[in-house]
């Protein structure tokens, strides 16, 4: 992990969107320079200079906050991460100028100290997780579980490279909650309860949905739901009511910091800062979030199949079942209910401390059967290699950059290193003819002019009748030119080919042109669609940029052909 974050891909050395403090990570952190350097938490008059100098997000796209009608800004993210990062920010701030850097909140010392602070938090969390698991499982089982966690899941990436995100911090907070819960029920000492109050308050301040962490101390020690067990738990809480009220008060005081900030910044006690993003509580995206080839949790972290299978032996022989299983189920429901489900399986990372219990039960069962051990061991090693391969590819490999895409792209690239550039099209389009085109028939041709452009305001559409002759494939190609390279996935120009019937769209295939288009050079790029026996009467070629990308793309020499093989 230390190698991954300090030598393999040290984000704290990089700039722009690859810096440690970029994109979402810069949003969590933004409170600190706003308060302690610029003393400007509301107006954010300094933001433009920081965006222009460091480019943590595109300068025209200030994602860290949103503008109120008054002209002031409210931070998008809650303040919990900033509070945890504060000691490391302070060290960076007093060190920046003596080391020859600008004390502006984003120079190299700040980037490095956020990385160093996260790594400290990660190693402490792993240390306590090991000690916790040893209370319930053997040293061998614990070692295997930690190995699978660190090398076989995306925790490796978020605990060593993308450490400015919340996930590794939340992971350690959950470990601390589990640790203190265990010892509270062993001794009922006041210090453990007060720590739990502070930890649950802090984890809620980092991400409000993590308030479900309160289920751990509430349900710990219960093995099933029964009237007798619930009565006994209520009696226990009444016995320790003063301690529990004190713990609750501490937690509420910490959470109240966010409400105080919202009141200060907006005049309202509550602000929903995520715009049109929200939850589909009645129709969660279970299948898409879990098994989609774009970013499905189990598709890209298959080692967690072991943990899910391990729920069976955990239910039979595990301890503290109600707390562990309730948290797993509710967290999974929450992350699947979020409408932006395509952000990937990283939101499961914070629940891995509790998932380690069924994973440990699975490994315990496997090790008790020699034949099963010989079957599972090579599969586990394959899963580890798969995760290491993806971690490499995400940052340095030929597949680096942007989301994976389609199932066709997944199977064409998995566990491969050197790939032809054309394969990148499968990120957007499942249809890609990779042979030699013969006996092609030109269906449509338009020379266009050098003034045919696609911008954030202008799109270009060309429609022509379906060919009388039947083809297996239709390919559209055009020459493209851009004066500036666009690396932001969401701002790229789409090159679309659509099949229509009576004005209604039947099928569409598209690619993002700037995946292939270099700055200042005319390049010919094509997009394919497999037609087979589809019944359509029109073909539309569309060039568009729906997300208001700032880059202009010039097009000419559009040609559409039909062919069989």
Automatic annotation (TrEMBL):
Any transmembrane segments, and where?
Answer: 112-129, 135-156, 168-185, 243-262, 297-315, 322-341, 371-390
The protein's UniProt keywords, in alphabetical order, are:
Membrane, Transmembrane, Transmembrane helix
| Keyword field contains Transmembrane helix | yes
Q: Does the keyword rRNA-binding apply?
A: no
Judging by the UniProt lineage, the source's domain of life is Bacteria
- Indicate what this protein is called per its UniProt record: Dolichyl-phosphate-mannose-protein mannosyltransferase
Query: Which source organism?
Result: Taibaiella chishuiensis
Q: What is the lineage of its organism?
A: Bacteria, Pseudomonadati, Bacteroidota, Chitinophagia, Chitinophagales
């Amino acid at each position: 992990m230390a190698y991954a974050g300090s030598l393999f891909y040290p984000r704290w050395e990089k700039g722009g969107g690859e810096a440690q403090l970029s994109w979402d990570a810069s949003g969590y952190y933004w409170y600190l320079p706003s308060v302690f350097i610029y003393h400007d938490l509301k107006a954010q008059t300094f933001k433009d200079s920081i965006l222009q100098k460091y480019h943590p997000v595109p300068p025209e796209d200030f994602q860290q906050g949103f503008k109120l009608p008054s002209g002031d800004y409210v931070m998008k993210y809650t303040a919990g991460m900033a509070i945890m990062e504060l000691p490391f920010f302070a060290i960076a701030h007093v060190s920046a100028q003596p080391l020859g850097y600008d004390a502006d909140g984003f120079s190299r010392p700040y980037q490095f100290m956020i990385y160093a602070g996260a790594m400290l938090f990660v190693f402490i969390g792993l240390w306590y997780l090991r000690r916790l698991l040893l209370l319930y499982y053997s040293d061998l089982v614990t070692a295997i579980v930690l190995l699978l966690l660190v090398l076989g899941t995306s925790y490796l990436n978020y605990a060593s490279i993308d450490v400015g995100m919340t996930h590794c911090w939340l992971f350690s907070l959950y470990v601390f909650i589990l640790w203190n819960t265990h010892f509270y029920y062993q001794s009922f000492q006041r210090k453990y309860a007060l720590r739990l109050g502070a930890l649950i308050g802090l984890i809620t301040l980092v991400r409000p949905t993590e308030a479900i962490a309160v289920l751990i101390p509430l349900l710990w020690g219960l093995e099933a739901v029964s009237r007798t067990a619930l009565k006994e738990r209520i009696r226990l809480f009444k016995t320790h009511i003063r301690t529990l009220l004190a713990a609750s008060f501490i937690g509420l005081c910490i959470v109240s910091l966010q409400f105080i900030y919202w009141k200060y910044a907006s005049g309202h006690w509550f602000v929903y800062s995520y715009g049109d993003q929200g939850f589909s509580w009645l129709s969660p995206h279970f299948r898409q979030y879990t098994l989609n080839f774009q970013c499905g949790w189990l598709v890209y972290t298959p080692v967690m199949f072991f943990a899910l299978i391990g729920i069976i032996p955990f239910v039979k022989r595990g301890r503290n079942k109600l707390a562990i299983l309730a948290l797993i189920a509710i967290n999974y429901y929450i992350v699947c209910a979020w409408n932006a489900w395509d952000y990937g399986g990283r939101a499961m990372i914070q629940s891995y401390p509790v998932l380690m219990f069924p994973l440990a039960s699975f490994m315990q069962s496997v090790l008790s059967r020699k034949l099963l051990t010989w079957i599972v061991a090579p599969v586990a090693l394959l899963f580890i290699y798969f995760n290491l391969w993806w971690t490499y590819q995400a940052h340095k490999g030929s597949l680096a950059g942007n989301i994976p895409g389609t199932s066709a792209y997944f199977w064409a690239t998995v566990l491969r290193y050197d790939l032809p550039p054309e394969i990148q099209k499968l990120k957007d389009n499942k249809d890609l003819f990779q042979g030699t085109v013969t006996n092609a028939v030109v269906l449509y041709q338009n020379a266009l002019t050098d003034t045919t452009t696609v911008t954030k305001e202008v799109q270009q559409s060309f429609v022509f009748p379906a060919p009388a002759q039947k083809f297996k494939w239709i390919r559209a190609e055009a020459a493209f030119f851009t004066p500036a390279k666009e690396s932001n996935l969401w701002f790229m120009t789409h090159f679309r080919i659509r099949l229509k019937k009576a004005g209604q769209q039947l099928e569409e295939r598209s690619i993002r042109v700037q995946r292939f288009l270099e700055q200042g050079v005319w390049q010919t790029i094509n997009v394919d669609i497999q037609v087979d026996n589809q019944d359509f009467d029109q073909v539309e070629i569309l060039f568009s940029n729906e997300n208001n990308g700032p880059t202009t793309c010039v097009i000419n020499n559009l040609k559409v052909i039909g062919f069989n093989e």
